[in-house]
Amino acid sequence: MSLRTRRTRERRQRLLLGLGHTAKWLIVVAALVAVGLFTRHSAREEARDELVHLSAERDAALSETVSRREETARLRQETEVAQAAAAAARQGYEAEVPTGPLAVLLAAVRTRLAAGLPEDRLAEVIRDAAPRRACDGPPIVRRFRITPGDRALPDDATTFFEGLVRIQANAPAGFENLARTMVVTFAGQGLPAPVTTTGTPAFQAFRIGHHEATITVTPSPIPGFAAATVPACRPD
Length: 236
Prior knowledge:
5-stranded mixed β-sheet, rod-shaped
């Protein structure tokens, strides 16, 4: 009985020892499983948090995109309104502020007014203005003496258009070869200063009212004289 009892006790001890080892490994496995489950749960939570964060960023980005589109549309509309206003202002400016020939004419009017010309007189001139026409009537011929040398004698000259135009002729080198040596001086209407030419025929255009007349000077068949010819201006 003693031997059987000892063997039984030994089997119990071995059984308990085996159970202890088994329990130890079960605890280790359980611990590993628990760690794995915790890690998986943590990973899921982190993934869920990351997904929520990304979703929030996406919503913020979409909201900012919509806001920028609305801002772009508003700026485009404001730009179109500004461009339309600028175009209207430019058209108004061009309509009120003359350019080109009209600007030149307006500057001349301002200059004359600043010089003291009465407004009614200037308005009268503008109302009476008409296109200038060339004088093409029958020729008017006047002979006048050629002054020897460089002297300017009042009697050795001729005039046209009621004294508005005056013509003088000189022969500095005598009366030989007048076509080459005669000096003709034109003065009067529309010329800021006398105009002198050497040689004949000599030409000079004058503006008389609404007409333009060209005077031609040549030696006269009569020795010592020159001839000035101008076409008559027809009445308006």
